[in-house]
Amino acid sequence: MKHLCSYFCAITITALLFSLTPASADSHENFLQCLYNYPENTTSISSVVYTQTNSSYTSVLDVSIQNLRFFNATSKPVVIVTPLVVSHIQATIICAQRHGLQIRTRSGGHDYEGLSYVAGVPFVVVDLIKIREIEVDVENSTAWVQAGATLGELYYTISQKSKTLGFPGGVCPTVGVGGHISGGGYGFMIRKYGLAADNVIDAKIVDVNGNLLDKETMGEDLFWAIRGGGGASFGIVVAWKIKLVPVPSTVTVFRVRRTLEENATGIIQKWQRGANKFNESLTIRIKMERVNSSKSGNLTVEAQFESLYLGRVDDLIPYMQKSFPELGLVREDCTEMSWIGSILFMAGFPNGQSTDVLLNRTQSDGLFFFKAKSDYVRDPIPDVGLEGLWPFLYEDEAKDGYIQFTPYGGRMYEISESETPFAHRSGNIFHIQYIVFWREKGDVAAQRRVNWIRRLYNYTEAYVSKSPRSAYLNYRDLDIGVNNDGYTSFSQASIWGFKYFGNNFNRLARVKTRVDPRNFFRNEQSIPPLISQGRK
Ligand SMILES: Cc1cc2nc3c(=O)[nH]c(=O)nc-3n(C[C@H](O)[C@H](O)[C@H](O)COP(=O)(O)OP(=O)(O)OC[C@H]3O[C@@H](n4cnc5c(N)ncnc54)[C@H](O)[C@@H]3O)c2cc1C
Ligand SMILES: *[C@@H]1O[C@H](CO)[C@@H](O)[C@H](O)[C@H]1NC(C)=O
Ligand SMILES: *[C@@H]1O[C@H](CO)[C@@H](O)[C@H](O)[C@H]1NC(C)=O
Ligand SMILES: *[C@@H]1O[C@H](CO)[C@@H](O)[C@H](O)[C@H]1NC(C)=O
Ligand SMILES: *[C@@H]1O[C@H](CO)[C@@H](O)[C@H](O)[C@H]1NC(C)=O
Ligand SMILES: *[C@@H]1O[C@H](CO)[C@@H](O)[C@H](O)[C@H]1NC(C)=O
Ligand SMILES: *[C@@H]1O[C@H](CO)[C@@H](O)[C@H](O)[C@H]1NC(C)=O
Ligand SMILES: *[C@@H]1O[C@H](CO)[C@@H](O)[C@H](O)[C@H]1NC(C)=O
Ligand SMILES: *[C@@H]1O[C@H](CO)[C@@H](O)[C@H](O)[C@H]1NC(C)=O
Ligand SMILES: *[C@@H]1O[C@H](CO)[C@@H](O)[C@H](O)[C@H]1NC(C)=O
Ligand SMILES: CC(=O)N[C@H]1CO[C@H](CO)[C@@H](O)[C@@H]1O
């Protein structure tokens, strides 16, 4: 670990006096000078610093934007830094404080509300796109993965080294491990192995003082906080050490579709009562969207039952006949493949697609505008509740929207609520995501979709978790509450904080108070220190 103290102490007093002052154009220049004068790697950092006048600025900013809603945001960073080494991160953290700029850290850029690259104050984006090495240790079933790597890069690299190791993370290969793992992270192995964050065994983070810390030096509480509490409130995560999990060399997948005419509602009813109790090697997720009925041509709802089974089809079919006969699964619906093949299947790639597509950081379907929300369900939704949902999907706004149910149970019930900041464990039967996509530009088009999803969310209130109504941090939703601009009080943050973290929110605030008492790392939904902070 580098000792930056002499440099940092020299500026601490200035930072204290000026860090709360809005930045001016002059201070941008001063910020750059500070970076270039930083004790280490002063020459190499200039090759990764982009100001708004740089011809590459726009492409560097846009390359990781995953939601068109924030594509032409008016509040762009004054500078983008794409660090090559840890000292570039340290320099940026120190100099940004000294010159009154906030930091937004970006790994994969999938934040649903664009918080990793949009801010209403003068700010710097630290984009970790060049910090993305992955080292797999097959002998010990572990890997070090740097924060700027994507899930696709991680899964690909694991599969190159072993056919019987995997990692229980999310489904979309372009998602960055920096945001994903620090916010929880789940995919089709959630019932067997829990969340991505549940499988972290060490981490490296640069804190507000510019110190590079690992599990030993950061302390138990900070190591706890960044495994589900979101990294952005605490520092810049550089790398995770993760536990790889055993997967069979052959797994089985299926995706079967049932419309309302084919008794989808009845089958979902049965699923709600069984899916969290099935063998934990089996995860069956449901995606509901509208389709034209093949019988009448009228709109109907189709439920897609998508599943990964960590075993062979010969075992799955009799198990399904016994446990979930209502779905009517037959052998022809199923495909046996490698675990990495299942990653491609779930990500929607056609059969026979080469694995190296996982290294491509561009979304294969292109970009959309989107807005999403999440919920947790503790008691089965009655028929009348489901039947009231379907008309929402018939509305025009829902043309490219869907509702997704992910079952809990298995490993998720074995981990206590307080073991990590992610509190949504036992008691939850399943998790819901509502999402709507559109391609039409403009505020009117956006407002229609946002209104639709808000009405839908209002409708489901009666059927989901209450007091507080829980939400998943990685499906970030600013509708559930935000910090006041530039001023973060615990009571204001409590409005959204208990929804994401349950009672763990209190402990997160205590960790924040210890590691970043002056609240440098802040955003619309950052954890507040217990003492009120900010300008004013
Ligand atoms: C298409 C798509 C599919 C998805 N699929 C899944 C899924 O299957 N399962 C699931 O659980 N989630 C899924 N998500 C949600 C995803 O997990 C979150 O959006 C996640 O936060 C994205 O991480 P990122 O690094 O790509 O995003 P970013 O936008 O880069 O970051 C997200 C947040 O984390 C902070 N952050 C990022 N990197 C760091 C770092 N190194 N140190 C500190 N803070 C950091 C950012 O500042 C921001 O607040 C999906 C999202 C999208 C858009
Ligand atoms: C910024 O722009 C200048 C001139 O346009 C160029 O020489 C420099 O390399 C650019 N910086 C980066 C990081 O690309
Ligand atoms: C962004 O702005 C450009 C230039 O005005 C425009 O051509 C483009 O369509 C806009 N994109 C989005 C997603 O709004
Ligand atoms: C496995 O871990 C042990 C103990 O940390 C270490 O000594 C060994 O080098 C590791 N194996 C590999 C292949 O890195
Ligand atoms: C629909 O599913 C329910 C619950 O699984 C079942 O009881 C009912 O018999 C099914 N109806 C039809 C018409 O198949
Ligand atoms: C669950 O399925 C796995 C894989 O087929 C099997 O090894 C295990 O015994 C099953 N567990 C139970 C409790 O049935
Ligand atoms: C469904 O029907 C509508 C109206 O006839 C048509 O515009 C639409 O393209 C159809 N959708 C699909 C997926 O076939
Ligand atoms: C299709 O919808 C129309 C209009 O709602 C309705 O009159 C008709 O009966 C429906 N057809 C079928 C086969 O359900
Ligand atoms: C990556 O994927 C995008 C979208 O599918 C495609 O246009 C592009 O050609 C791919 N890039 C490479 C290097 O394969
Ligand atoms: C929310 O739902 C309630 C009934 O559940 C209804 O009375 C109210 O009008 C709805 N609000 C909005 C904004 O749709
Ligand atoms: C001490 C230190 O971090 N040196 C790094 C400076 O930057 C180059 C790459 O530009 C690295 O290779 C060095 O390790």
UniProtKB/TrEMBL annotation:
<dbReference type="GO" id="GO:0016491">
    <property type="term" value="F:oxidoreductase activity"/>
</dbReference>
<dbReference type="InterPro" id="IPR016166">
    <property type="entry name" value="FAD-bd_PCMH"/>
</dbReference>
<protein>
    <submittedName>
        <fullName>CO dehydrogenase flavoprotein-like</fullName>
    </submittedName>
</protein>
<dbReference type="InterPro" id="IPR036318">
    <property type="entry name" value="FAD-bd_PCMH-like_sf"/>
</dbReference>
<dbReference type="GO" id="GO:0071949">
    <property type="term" value="F:FAD binding"/>
</dbReference>
<feature type="domain" description="FAD-binding PCMH-type">
    <location>
        <begin position="73"/>
        <end position="247"/>
    </location>
</feature>
<keyword id="KW-0285">Flavoprotein</keyword>
<dbReference type="InterPro" id="IPR016169">
    <property type="entry name" value="FAD-bd_PCMH_sub2"/>
</dbReference>
<keyword id="KW-0274">FAD</keyword>
<dbReference type="Pfam" id="PF01565">
    <property type="entry name" value="FAD_binding_4"/>
</dbReference>
<dbReference type="GO" id="GO:1901696">
    <property type="term" value="P:cannabinoid biosynthetic process"/>
</dbReference>
<dbReference type="InterPro" id="IPR016167">
    <property type="entry name" value="FAD-bd_PCMH_sub1"/>
</dbReference>
<keyword id="KW-0732">Signal</keyword>
<dbReference type="Pfam" id="PF08031">
    <property type="entry name" value="BBE"/>
</dbReference>
<keyword id="KW-1015">Disulfide bond</keyword>
<keyword id="KW-0325">Glycoprotein</keyword>
<dbReference type="InterPro" id="IPR012951">
    <property type="entry name" value="BBE"/>
</dbReference>
<comment type="similarity">
    <text>Belongs to the oxygen-dependent FAD-linked oxidoreductase family.</text>
</comment>
<dbReference type="InterPro" id="IPR006094">
    <property type="entry name" value="Oxid_FAD_bind_N"/>
</dbReference>
<feature type="signal peptide">
    <location>
        <begin position="1"/>
        <end position="25"/>
    </location>
</feature>
